[in-house]
Amino acid sequence: MTTGNYAGSTRYYLERFSAPTHSLPPAVWLNGSRFCNRTRGMKVMIVDDNAEIRQLIRKLLGEVDNEFVECGDGSEAVSAYGRERPDWALMDVSMKQMDGLTATQLITTQFPGSRILVMTQHHEPKLSDRARAAGATEFLNKEHLIELRPLLRAERERNGDTTPMPAESN
Questions:
Q1: Which residue of 37, 48, 62, 89 could cross-link 167, Cys pair, CB 3.0 to 4.6 Å?
Q2: pTM of the entire predicted model
């Protein structure tokens, strides 16, 4: 894998998380259905203006037992949140029409208790503090997207669901 001059770009993330050293464990087959390495039974809203990043997140979390809602910007997420009521919203910071911090603040004001993970590729000091001030539950740099799954799994377990994920039950 080469990081070259495109570190932080979509190409960087796609190569990084598609590389063999970062690939997910093999899928498990159960009752004729393919179960990928995933967090089980959650509705996840992915808010990012980059469709390739949304697709990457879907792959990281698995697509079989999860339900995904995708939004291309913060204003779309604000209008869809009440209708969709996701377990988690994964919110990018930098988007054109409405940024993720503004969307997070609007959603958490309208829906107290909303769980929003703010993610970014920017290495801006205090951005994590600003995200939490806007109401974010978690903050993650996109360089560490592979940590999404354990974060959501830990939340699922805190809510009392201790059923192992299929890839963990081998």
A1: 37
A2: 0.72
